[in-house]
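Model it.
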Amino acid sequence: AALKKIEDRLKAMIRAYIEFGLTYPSYYDIMFNLHTPKYLDYAETEIEPLAFREKQNALKCLTLFIDPVTSYIPIKGKKKEHFILYQVIKFWSDLHGLITLNNSRLFHEVTDDVDDFIAKRTADIVDNFLKLKDSLDEGKKIF
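Modeled.
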């Protein structure tokens, strides 16, 4: 029952991320696409401490995904943290690509039914995530 709750939470988070990106494309661009200064742009400057604090605040959002994934994935050991971060970034890049290609209207150039494609691709992303756990349960190596 606990894993089902985590699965439902992760599915909802994935769908909410996509919905936000598609519904608020300008906000999404500001957050993820525009070349806005990042922490490393301020390294070794007088405002590096402030930039670092803001980076830490921003990374709390990443933790919203990392925590349930860590609870969901049935592996132990030193490699787990690295594996979890890799998987979260991998799925994030899939989500980002889906949103960005839609918002830039590139999908509209290559498919007639963009909404159907997005729905199917979202389902694929969710299914692939759930299959990851299944493959680990079956003994697949993490790297």
